[in-house]
Known about the structure:
The chain is of the alpha+beta class. It is built from 3 helices and 5 strands; from the N terminus they run E-H-H-E-E-E-E-H. Strand 2 and strand 3 form a beta hairpin.
Amino acid sequence: METFDQPPRDPDYSDTFCGPNAHPSLTARELTALALSRVPGWFRLMFSVRQRIAGVLGLKTAHGDGTQVGTDFLMELPVLIDTSDRFRAGLNDKHLDFAIDVEKQAQNVAITTDIWFGQGANRLLGRAYLTAVKPFHNAILRHWIAVLSDGTAK
């Protein structure tokens, strides 16, 4: 079973997206699964492109058993915290390590991404990767917050 070794320092990059929680009876894990169940077509396309490019660069595109990672990948990552109010999972890769955190607050939900860049040339690759995917990262997190806030996002 894959594990996640969170680097023992502050993240090199972190962002948080928040919105009202329209599903207060769901746990943080269930909120994560709900958001991931509603990914738009553009995300599926971008994820497919990411998988192809990542494979060429030697980044992770499959599970330890060889099955391909899907768009619900966050549910398949090593879990760091799984309580009713917080679900945190992460992944170590050669270009960067990241953790994603879904947290139920009083009436809100917050999704935080923490990123630690690799070392040496992989540090540059990690920074370049984040620069390339950041607009899509921001768009999908806004989409997931919309799903959890009012449920209308498809």
